[in-house]
Specification:
Distance between the termini: 20 Å
Shape: globular
Radius of gyration: 14 Å
Strand order of the largest sheet: 1-4
Low-confidence stretches: none
Largest sheet: 2 strands, antiparallel
Number of helices: 4
Number of strands: 4
Helix content: 25-40%
């Protein structure tokens, strides 16, 4: 199974106009601490691939948050070394809707 197919199987739905439910307390921490010291662990611990580091125009790594992939497992809230990721419940009570459960 590829990552996006597995995310789709969760049935998680995010409305396009809802406020972001994943934010950073300090925008500088991912690159200055997490990438510099630990090579960006959030890019590895998230089972849905929400967090990824991509190089910018000058080759520096920047954290990109793909909140639409979030399956609401709260792994980021638990495993983030710096506790910089702020996870809040999305609007409308959205979350996984596994079929057959």
């Amino acid at each position: 199974f590829d990552l996006l197919s597995s995310v789709a199987l969760t049935g998680t739905n995010h409305e396009g106009d809802q406020p972001a439910h994943l934010t950073l307390k300090d925008d500088g921490v991912p690159e200055a601490v997490n990438w510099a010291k630990y090579a960006g662990p959030e890019g590895r611990f998230c089972p849905a691939g929400v967090y990824e580091y991509q190089p910018n125009d000058v080759g520096e790594m920047n954290l990109v948050i793909n909140a639409q992939n979030c399956i609401h497992c709260k792994t980021c809230d638990i495993k983030d070394y710096s506790q910089n990721i702020n996870w809040v419940c999305p609007e409308g009570g959205g979350g996984p809707a596994y079929n057959g459960m």
